[in-house]
Structure formats: C-alpha cells, structure tokens
C-alpha cells in the first residue's frame, strides 16, 4: 500500500522525534529512522534531502506540539493571571510523562547548535516565540512588562531542573515562585 508524501513525512518525523528525544540526534543513524518509520531509506531521503533537514522538521513538529499543549493549558484558566500560572501546570503534566527528557529544543541545540546555524536559528525562534507568548499573557493580566522574561526564565529553568533531577517537582516550585513574582508585581 502506497503512502502519500504528507503521511510519509509525518511518519518519518514522528519516528525521528521519538528516537532523537530518547537517544540524541548524533546517536541515531538514518537506518534507525528507517526501521522505526517502516519506510525505505531511499523514500526517506526523497522526503528529506539530509539528516539536518529531518532535524529541522522534527523541531517544527516539536514546536507544534508545544504550542498546542500550552494553548490548551492556558485556555482552561479562568482569568489572565491564571493563564500565566497555567504555563507551570502544563509543565507539571509534561514532567510527569514517563518519557520526559527535558526540552527537546535545548537538547538538540546542545548537540548541534554550535555546528548548525539553521538548528540554532530554529531553536532561538522557538524560544523567542515562547517569550512573546508569555509577554502577551502578562500584558493581558495587566502586569508590568518586566514580569514576562522572569516568568519565561522560571519555565525554562523548571524544564532543565526537572530533566536533570528526574523529578516533576520543579514545575510546582517554579509555579510558586511565579505566584510570588505576580504578587510582588501587584496583581493578587
């Protein structure tokens, strides 16, 4: 049964994402992607001219997952302040997943950022987009502008801490720090 190009790309990206996230990009060869996707190597290289191109597609996929999950979590909040704090509820759920291994963007940046400008740029764009998202939520909550980068740093730090410690508690601790920050900014 022939698989159309869109479906084949999706299958390869998902397979590569799982492998890269679990083992690292450099530890995963294209043969492993072939095995995991069930598609011939020739077809994979017909879809992605290089492994670097596949890595960029994985980053785009991860960005989509992140944005969808974050939007769902923040939309459930009852008010603008709650939307800011919901970022940490989203993180708490994610940190409790059995395959959590930290931020996939940071992981890939750590492996390839120094030698691939395209990867570094993609990761920077993702991080800037997250900061812009937090900035908009902070504005909607009527908070001072200086609060946004601080909230984003708490979220980023929680991801790293949870990955290294192996404990999801970093999300709750970062949420408590964010609540203190919001209170100090005058929005109880």
TrEMBL record:
> Which organism does this record belong to?
Nocardioides thalensis
Gene Ontology molecular function terms on file: DNA binding
Keyword Transcription assigned to the entry: answer is: yes
What is this protein called in UniProt?
A: AcrR family transcriptional regulator
Pfam families attached to this UniProt entry: TetR_N
Which residue spans does the record list as DNA-binding? 29-48
All copies of domain HTH tetR-type, residue ranges:
6-66
Q: Its domain of life?
A: Bacteria
Keywords of the record, alphabetical order, are: DNA-binding, Transcription, Transcription regulation
